[in-house]
Amino acid sequence: MISRRRFIAVGSTGLLAACDRLNSSQAFRGVLRSAEGLTMRAQRLVSPRDALAREYGEADMSPIFRSNGTSMPGTSEYAKHLAESFANWRLDVDGLVSRPLSIPIQTLRGMPHRVQITRHDCVEGWSAIGKWHGVQLSKILDAAGLSTRARYIVFHCADRFSDKPYYESIDLIDAFHPQTILAFGMNDHLLPVANGAPLRLRVERQLGYKHAKYIQRIEAVESLAGIFGGKGGYWEDNVDYEWYAGI
Amino acid sequence: MNDAAVTAEPIEARSPRRFAYRHRLPTRIWHWVNAITVIVMLMSGLMIFNAHPHLYWGQFGANFDHPWLTFKGRPFPGWATIPSTYNLAAARRWHLAFAWVLVTGFVLFLAVSLRNRHIQRDLAPKRDEASPRHIWSDIKEHAQLRFPTGEAALKYNILQKLSYVGVIFLLLPLMILTGLAMSPSMDAAWPWLLDLFGGRQSARSIHFLCAAAILLFIVVHLVMVALAGPINEIGSMITGRFKVPPERPAE
């Protein structure tokens, strides 16, 4: 007869071992992963396509907007751009577009832009509210003439994380959402380095890791399969974060 | 009971075992699906909490803001989390997949239990039970570990009803809604979620507090099952057959 305490101890370690074993099983992870598609379809079903993330007032802003992930890209190329105050930074737009573009950052800053005070939700659980100034991504994509074959927009970044290039991707529903902007300003100033200078993505209905910083190139593609690890982003490829980060 | 007069056998021998059918199939299925789902959600939730073990009130909250609850490092140890070593991505996959099981089971349970009148008949407190006097006498009975016997054991007593109703109609809906309120996409679709809870970080705090309340419920529930006769109680939740405890002799 085993004691109750021993029974509970064996039971709970057994449960944990079982969970860890399930977690390393490809088939079971596939079952868990299928929830991501279900969540995306369900959320899209109940969301009007242009449903706006809440916009806050000045009084609601975080006193300090923390940065996360890369706070200073370590490459010599970036250091040179920083030393030049990003005077020669350009945004390249290519892939499945009829008119590839290479837009100087000064031109972007002069374009009609949107100002939005929104909440940034990190996958870890914290939130910060900041003010963003940026050009709607839809304007850039329209200018480049997006092909009807294009299904995803990929953002290539200047920072490297664990020595791998950072990148992210979103689909066209989010790319053409009115609050999806390429932000060059934050809280009434030019974007600080820690928050992605000189250009970052705001995709307000998704979690923080989708908001690529230090953007140098936008690529329109039909499939994410051929790009880096094929899962659509640095975190998706390397630690299995969900590609759809709406929750 | 005519034979009572002619036999002199003790009560136990005369009616050796009386069984009653106590939990209907949908209730039993939901109970066990939930037992697994809620434990997985609690343990994976603790791993998610480990990623940022600070809670705030209001719309925003991060490292430079004032938390009402804060821990150093990763507060919950491996034996309490899924997976057992730090992995936010895997914990989220478990949590968000089992959330679908929780919500689906909850909605089906509500629909079936309204239809077969389980909620109206077994769970809703009757008018006389809801009186403070009745509740207080039930608390005293429980404190002395005197559990209902005979026919009374087939019905939920008022403390059971209140705790089950609290979990089913308060804690579970709050868990689901505060969970949705943490989703930036749901906040765009249903902005009332933010107004209902006073912001995403308030919703996150309420989510954590409700999880603690559910954990408390589970602990008390298991203690009561152990005290009331675990074989009979667990058996009846598996098969539906419940051995009715014989009437307590009058004092």
TrEMBL record, chain A:
Top-level taxon of origin: Bacteria
Gene3D superfamilies from the UniProt entry: Oxidoreductase, molybdopterin-binding domain
Residue intervals of the Oxidoreductase molybdopterin-binding domain: 86-222
Bilayer-spanning residue ranges: none
PROSITE patterns membership: PROKAR_LIPOPROTEIN
Listed Pfam families: Oxidored_molyb
Protein name as catalogued: Molybdopterin-dependent oxidoreductase
UniProt source species: Sphingomonas anseongensis
TrEMBL record, chain B:
Keyword Electron transport: yes
SUPFAM superfamilies named among the record's database cross-references: Transmembrane di-heme cytochromes (SSF81342)
Domain of life: Bacteria
Keywords, ordered alphabetically: Cell membrane, Electron transport, Heme, Iron, Membrane, Metal-binding, Transmembrane, Transmembrane helix, Transport
Membrane topology: Multi-pass membrane protein
Pfam families: Ni_hydr_CYTB
Residue ranges of domain Cytochrome b561 bacterial/Ni-hydrogenase in the record: 22-240
InterPro entries assigned: Cyt_b561_bac/Ni-Hgenase, Di-haem_cyt_TM, Hydrogenase_cytochrome, Ni-dep_Hydgase_cyt-B
Localization (cell): Cell membrane
Keyword ATP-binding: no
Segments passing through the bilayer: 29-49, 94-114, 164-186, 206-228
Family: Belongs to the HupC/HyaC/HydC family.
Name the UniProt record assigns to this protein: Cytochrome b/b6 domain-containing protein
